[in-house]
Amino acid sequence: MTLAETAVLEPLALTRLHTVVLVDDESAVLGALRRTLRREPYDVRTTSSPEAALDWVANGDVSLVLTDQRMPGMCGTELAEQVRRISPHTVRVMLTAYPGNELVRHGLDRDVQWLISKPWNDDALRLALRRLLRDNEWSPPAIVVPEPPDLRRGGELLARAARRVASAMARGSGWILGFLWMADAGGGPGP
User: Fold this and answer.
1) CA–CA separation, 132 and 136 (whole Å)
2) pTM here?
3) 65 forms bridges with which residues in the sheet?
4) Cα separation, 81 vs 166, whole angstroms
5) In whole angstroms, what is the distance from residue 92 CA to residue 156 CA?
């Protein structure tokens, strides 16, 4: 028996209840996904509206968003980008029949963390989502990078940052120079 087969037979344990949001404009796909995930130990929410998914992400603790790429109004990579901005710790997964699409590849650079092709294998889908959720439980919280500052104040902010860096370097190099001086003056361990 392979490791993958063992993992499917003995699912990966999760330490808390997760909320998983499924977004697809085809109700048949949402129904099939819901059936595939019905015995999984997390709360599954389905919607055909990317806006509803964004509301859930903004108003609650959504662990993972699984989205289709081709949807009217907002494509999956746009949805993933907005989810990343609202909730950087939320895992973003793309489910698409067109994995070679340029928009999908662009989204994979930053906003989409995992790609699953349609049609999917039920066991592989369940295992992938469990692993992503488990890995997210053990990873440190995402660092939120603030939006760039107003460029009109850029010179002032840059000068302030440069002063902080110079000050930190001076404190650090002073310690290093003091240590080297001590060693040279016989204050450190001798030969």
Assistant:
1) 6
2) 0.64
3) 21, 92
4) 35
5) 37
pLDDT digits (tens, 9 = 90+) for 160-172: 666 665 555 554 4
Closest by CA to 83, choosing from 37, 41, 118, 52, is: 52
Q: Among candidates 104, 93, 90, which has minimal Cα distance to 129?
A: 93
Q: Which two tokens stand for residue 144?
A: 């939120």
Whether residue 76 contacts residue 23, with contact meaning beta carbons closer than 8 Å, is answered with yes
Residue 14 tokens read as 């999760």
Angle CA 6–7–13, to nearest 5: 135
Strands 64-68 and 91-96: parallel
Mean pLDDT per 10-residue section of the chain, whose length is 191 residues: 48 80 95 94 93 94 92 90 93 82 57 86 92 79 54 59 56 42 46 48
Under 8 Å CB-to-CB from 154, ≥6 apart: which residues? none
The token pair that represents 73 in the structure block? 């109004």
Tokens of residue 133, six digits: 């959720």
Query: How many CB atoms lie under 10 A from the CB of residue 68?
Result: 23
CB within 8 Å of 181: residues ≥ 6 apart: 187
Q: Provide the token pair at 132.
A: 């992503």
